[in-house]
Structure formats: C-alpha cells, structure tokens
Write a structure and sequence with these properties.
With about 150 residues, the protein is an all-alpha fold. It is built from six helices and no strands.
Amino acid sequence: MSDVANALFQQMRLTILLTAKDGAEESPFHPAYLLAWDDGVYPILDDGADWHKPHAGQFRVTKEQVDRIFSILCDHWDDKKEITFYALEDLLGIHGSAYSTGDFQRHDVIIICRYLFLHDRFDKEFWSTLCRNGECPSEAHVIASDREVDIYFN
C-alpha cells in the first residue's frame, strides 16, 4: 500500500469517525458503518455509500473476507441450520485465539459478525445461537451485546 493511499485512507477514516465524537447517535452515519471504519472492516453492506470504495485496499479486513463470512451465515440462515461461533471457526480453519490455518483470525470474525449484527442481519435467535454460552469464546459475546457503538479517540 502506498504512503499516499494510506494517508488518504486515514484522512477519510478520521473524517468519518469525527462525526461520532459526541456519540454515534449524533453521526449521520449508521453505527455499523462507523464500527467498520473504526475497526478496519470493509463495509460490504454499505456499498450504496461511496466513501469507502476508493479505499477498499486499505481496510485490514477485506471485502472478500466479509463476503465469505456473510455467505456462510446466510447459507445457514436460509437453510434454517444453527451455527455456533466455534462451528464457524472450524469452517474457517481457526483453532483458538492464536492459531489459524486459513485467512481469518478470531478477532476478525468477531468484528465482522458485530458489523452484521449492527446492520440487523438475521434475528435475535440466530445471534443467540452463534454466541451461545459454552459454544463461543467469552470475547464473542460482544457481537450481540447491544446496539451502541463507542468510538474512542486516543
């Protein structure tokens, strides 16, 4: 990634996130979109907006990664098949928080799922199953914890 492309990405990121400096509810952007920019997840469900498109290559979590997880979850949703977080990790080749044989890390999957949750994809029961106690790591409970997004400026 070139220095110029990275600088433009960071400038756009800061511009978007500053709209939430007084709280996400004050921003003109959807909370899921703010979360995507804050955590570097390509906002695939927001392709109606043009803000992120020129910067697709700078997102830490790629469009293809988000699309893959979204497709897996959609397939389970359409087939009315339950899926737990650990089962999703197995499909993606993730073996705990420190080891992966695929293109994903646990944190990436959590933040992608959080983005999808904030976009109201699937229903409460679906997310409850995905984040069921004993069938997900404790950090995955943030996925469906609430609808608020906090942006912290360090």
